[in-house]
Amino acid sequence: MADEKSAFTTREALFYHETIRPGKIEIIASKPMASQRDLSLAYSPGVAAPVEAIAANPADAARYTARSNLVAVISNGTAILGLGNLGALASKPVMEGKAVLFKRFADVDSIDIELDTEDPDKFIEAVALMEPSFGGINLEDIAAPECFIIEQALRERMNIPVMHDDQHGTAIIAAAGLINACHLTGRKLKDVKMVVNGAGASALACTALIKAIGVPHENVIVCDRTGPITPGRDNVDQWKSAHAVPTKATSLEEALVGADIFLGLSAAGALKPEWVAKMADRPIIFAMANPVPEIMPEDAKAVRPDAIIATGRSDYPNQVNNVLGFPFIFRGALDVRATAINEEMKIAAAHAIAELARERVPDEVAAAYGVSHQFGEEYIIPAPFDPRLMEVVSSAVAQAAMDSGVAEAPIEDFGAYRLALKARLNPTTAALTNIYEQAKANPKRVVFAEAEEDVALRAAIQFRDFGYGEPILVGRTEKVLEKLRELGVDDPDDWIIENSALSDKVPAMNDYLYKRLQRRGYTQRDVQRMVNQERNVFAALLVALDHGDAMITGLTRTYAQTAREVARVIDPKPGATPFGIHMMIGKNQTTFLADTTINERPSAAELAHIAKETAAVARRMGHEPRVAFMSYSTFGNPSGQWLGNLRDAVALLDADDAVDFEYEGEMAPDAALNRKVMELYPFSRLSGPANVLIMPGLQSANLSAKLLRELGGETMVGPMMIGSEKPVQIAPMTAIAPDLLTLAVLASAGIVG
Questions:
Q1: The sheet that has 70-75: what strands, in order across it?
Q2: What 3 state SS string does 463-479 have?
Q3: What was the pLDDT predicted at 695?
Q4: Average pLDDT of the chain?
Q5: Is 98 a catalytic residue?
Q6: Residues with Cβ within 8 Å of residue 357, at least 6 apart in sequence
Q7: Residue 291: what pLDDT?
């Protein structure tokens, strides 16, 4: 927000929040509501049963309502990010965002609440009265010192977890990083000397927790704008005075002489390079001011190459990111119905995060960031998208709640609990996020064939703005430039625009394409016309001649027509059968459907090939494939004349020793997806519901995909084209900018294509 990169950034952020439906969250029913009986059970008269049960035993609210997985994210907007006091209503986008993070990372349901008051007493009273509604309270963006008063009062009054994340979330991640930095430098916490710059809510919470993990009180000097906080200093409130220590230092510069650790939550540029030079050997510097830290890492390294540095930024190693903590802290607290988030739980979270960073980093995290992370000076804090955080941190917090006596529902089988944590999140969500990070680490040139279209241009702008690569825009130069200006791009002349009427690449394109098509009935004039007038041909030639790495199109032509135009230029991979995949992302499962776009009646060999390639895509997306060959018939019942190809495809996989995934068929959808129906076929080789559905023909596949898109209510990605010699993706004509962006990233990252 504070980084005003360009007018476009603001425009695009507003578009993001406005499009599809306003805001970032919605509420959906978790139970069927399709009949009069459903209505009777959900409301009157059926709802009386859980009402009476809860009245008799309040703990039953966890059984019969959403309360035990529901957190309120509450603010009054007095300290919004780095923007200051902009009011309760202006804080709503931030609180909605926090709710999204809760759901994305820990499957915690969350509702944002904005209270229009700066009176701490009114705020406290309003929140306390809502205790029956929620399993936990996450306080956010509340100015100090009121935030201290509010949190303390609510923790005392409420019998559910309450945490001010700006304070304690930052503290937990900083403490984890500090534990590991001390480990790497051979320091013991009891011996280190630390200087804190900043005395706001976050800084004081960090200081308190770091003391709780073992740094002695007398070894920590806290500085505010006036200088070191010492006993008896004037104009020091009770929260600052709790960290006052005697010192001869009269400034931050003096306090830093010989210090082992600098921890900053203050302002950009507050730490001078010459002061860093005066610190102890192998200094530890946590410069966490946002968006610009107290000192830039390269400036600190210039004077102290031996320093270990952490910031709040994602573009440098060792990001102190609250998302590593708060979702999983509340997850563990909710799962044991904790009555509070106490010091023991925070310490447990910090140690769990620190220990995780010292373990071998999973391959999917390495792939996401384009480097093989390992514990060391530039990896003291786990990556935010490490899939193990859910299991490791949540279970550590739950155990600490049990050990400290605040858990009302202790977990009996921790092994089963850890497995349940792993299963909570659809792996596709994490996989997609990792793929976006992978694209950032290995940026590519993607040709947007329809850059005169607003949807395509928005996607291209996001592709560049988010750092995924360099978009190449195909269209009439002045028209594209005009649209770039309309969309708020400050530097339209800095973009690569390819116009067939002006491009010096056209002669080479004509020669290349004529050699391909001259024996297919095309004259040289036909080829010249196609290159000059058909954008898909021109765009495909850019990729074929290595002027781009991938291509996105589909908005202005039907899929079939677009595929034919691209095929004039780009061949299938040797030995490959091109086909299309739709990916359906549900709440708890992801399903891959193929071939949905190209092969009308695939042969047995083609079906087997499609199965193997789709299984490979599923694996790259984080899923262990279970393949089902779809039919109206289940193992020959009823019989029919169109079953032979499916059976032969299964036989081909049987004979292929390289096949390393589950597969079965032929079978109807319920036999592949419904566990109860699957039990009728105990001989089936599928260990669970299928997640890769290989369709018998294009008619059934395409109809199924489009029906599911229109009626299914699930997120759908695709079609994704597989098997082309160069990465080409053809979007539906109804696609919106996020759809094109996803396809562009998947193509550039090599996941599909």
A1: 109-114, 70-75, 136-139, 162-164
A2: HHHCCCEEEEEECCHHH
A3: 92
A4: 89
A5: yes
A6: 176, 180, 375, 379, 380, 381, 382
A7: 80
- Catalytic residue flag (residue 559): no
Catalytic residue among 43, 122, 479, 515: 43
Q: What is the Rg, in whole angstroms, of the alpha carbon atoms belonging to the chain?
A: 29
Among 24, 98, 444, 483, which one carries the catalytic annotation? 98
Query: In this structure, what DSSP letter does residue 575 have?
Result: T
Share of the chain above pLDDT 90, in %: 59
The domain 168-320: what is its CATH number? 3.40.50.720
- Sheet of strand 728-730, all strands in order from the earlier edge strand to the far edge: 496-498, 469-474, 444-448, 550-553, 728-730
Query: Is the model's pLDDT at 286 over the cut of 90?
Result: yes
Task: Name the residue with tokens 């089963």.
Answer: 416
What's the burial of 717, exposed, middle or buried (CB within 10 Å: 0-12/13-18/19+)? buried
Question: How many angstroms separate the Cα of 187 from the Cα of each of 7, 300, 409?
Answer: 47, 20, 39
The candidate with the shortest Cα–Cα distance to 308, out of 252, 317, 209, is: 317
Give the C-alpha separation, 706 to 734, whole Å.
Answer: 12
Q: Report the CATH number of the 40-160 domain.
A: 3.40.50.10380
What percent of the residues of the chain are helix, what percent strand, and what percent coil, each to the nearest 5? Answer: 45, 15, 40
The Cα 323–Cα 310 span in angstroms is: 16
The CATH-assigned architecture of domain 579-723 is: 3-Layer(aba) Sandwich (3.40)
Copy the structure tokens of residue 447: 């040709």
Segment among 33-42, 245-254, 351-360, 461-470 with least mean pLDDT = 33-42
- 436-567: CATH class: alpha beta
DSSP state of 381: S
Domain boundaries, the chain: 40-160, 168-320, 323-418, 436-567, 579-723
When mean pLDDT is compared across 6-10, 17-21, 309-313, 387-391, the lowest value belongs to 6-10
**Cβ 200 vs Cβ 335: under 8 Å:** no
For 441, 594, 604, 632, 745, the CA distances from 638, given in Å and listed in that order, are: 52, 23, 20, 8, 43
Residues 519-536: tens digit of each pLDDT: 888 899 999 999 999 999
396-405: per-residue pLDDT in tens? 999 999 999 9
pTM (2 d.p.):
0.69
* pLDDT at site 462: 84
In this prediction, residues 43-64 reach a mean pLDDT of 90
How confident is residue 458, by pLDDT bands cut at 50, 70 and 90? confident
